[in-house]
Design goal:
Helices cover 17% and strands 34% of the residues. By secondary structure, it is of the alpha+beta class. The chain has a five-stranded antiparallel β-sheet with strand order 3-2-1-4-5. A hairpin with a 2-residue loop joins strand 2 and strand 3. The longest helix has 15 residues. The model has no long low-confidence stretch (mean pLDDT 86).
Length: 88
């Protein structure tokens, strides 16, 4: 299973975008998108560097906040419910 974190568009040019997510920037292809992409949009990006969906900013910010909260947990989230480990 793959988890795509919303990435903020910083630059757009020639069918490519520079995006940022959790402090990491990368250049991605917009080839799979049929809609226009603008600076400030949020994109979901698949492995291989292709953006596949533009999402609403509010939904993106909610997802990023939840991911940040999960990453800050003292226990590995994959172990929740196993061996009595519960989220903090």
């Amino acid at each position: 299973m793959c988890l795509a974190a919303p990435s903020l568009v910083l630059e757009v040019a020639d069918g490519m975008a520079v995006t940022e997510c959790f402090g990491q920037t990368r250049r991605v292809s917009l080839l799979l998108l049929s809609e226009d992409v603008q600076v400030g949009d949020y994109l979901l990006i698949q492995a291989g560097g292709f953006a596949f969906e533009r999402i609403e900013p509010e939904r993106a910010r909610e997802s990023l906040a939840l991911m940040q909260e999960l990453m800050a947990q003292p226990h590995d989230a994959r172990l929740w419910g196993a061996a009595g480990i519960e989220p903090a």
